[in-house]
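[09:14] KT: can someone run the structure on this one? pasting the chain below
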Amino acid sequence: MSILILTACIIFLILQIAWFKINPFIAFIITSLLAALFLGLPIETISPVLQKGLGEMLGSITLIIVFGTCIGKLAVSSGAANVIAKTVMNWTGKKYVRLGLMITGFIIGIPLFYSVGFVLLVPLIFSVAHQFKLSKVYLGIPMLASLSVAHGFLPPHPSPMALSSILKADIGLVLIYGIIIAIPTILIAGLWFSTRFKNIKTESDHEILNVEEIKNEGKLPSFGLSLFSALFPVFGLTITSLLPLISDNEKLIAICKIIGDPSIIMLLSLLLCTYTLGIKMNRSMSSVMDDYTQAIKDVALIVLIVGGAGCLKEVMIVSGVNETIVATLNQVNIHPFLLAWMMAAIIRIRVGSATAAGLMTASVLLPLLQSNDLDPNLFVLSVGAGSLMCSHVNDPSFWMFKEYFNISLKDTFKSWTVMESLVSVLGIVFIFILNALIH
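[09:31] RB: done, structure tokens below
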């Protein structure tokens, strides 16, 4: 009965978001409240349970997501993102222009939210398409596949961060494994798949301007400084995760544990970028802080949605339904990674939001991870891969792609939807391969 109640609540959650267009945060709170009532929690304990779930989830990921968003905002407004893009494009030239765009999308996609990276990079795609007289879709798919993979697989993006928190994964290892899986995925789903769209035509040729203003008044950071500043969180998390694996020095391990805490790494990165991309570029402190204020406003709703998922998770734990789920799922003859991928994919297709799909799946499948000898880092990536499946008409990114590239609905399905599905399927395939190699 408890599983039936939880299933009904999940369906109701999906209907609230997809059908009634209720804000996902409010939908999560309503669903958590109903689940608590129907699962028999004493009425006087429901509010404290929801508060605990919200607080624990926000306490673990808020700093990381907010700091990461501020770094991404500064990378755009300082011109660092443009410097990285133009430098990579100059290196690759016309012969390998799609490879250059793919690399650019991956580098810039790590610190930037998907929608920001999309709007920032689309003008670059159009400029290159005009310069070399090539199809915009042909050039755009490799870059946008990179952005999508970074959004679904790699910290400090909200979904991988929240999944890592829920599933108790090591964020540094999630990042390392995610990059390993991402490279072959984008080579196939981006570079190889895009060759089918050499002749796809846009319905008209309109210009999309870069809406992000560069505020450094003509003084741009160098490529090396831009790359180092934007990717410092990646370098920090990678180094502090790998050093304890290759060294027995207790002091070094202790230092890595302190500095390698994702919140500390992100704070150090933010302070570094404030100087290298702000003060050093003759920006006033108040101007940089204005960027950070706007970034925090932009990410506030995403953080609250993640907190709402924490409420539902806590209700499941307190009510004991997680133990019932464990007993039931252990009887299903399917690998937990594949089960996680399938569940996330189904919810993604129904809801449209990759973040919401990932959070719903992780909340339900957390007990399965705790009862099996599974790698939580790869479990995070399995959910992330499923959450990217089959973007279609209920996904805002689908319409962004269609309208920016100004192509028909049929061509949008053939290019964008198939590319996203390839990313998802290839992701779970490479996760199983990496799991076999590691374990």
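[09:33] KT: thanks! The chain has a mean pLDDT of 86.
[09:34] RB: yep, looked fine to me
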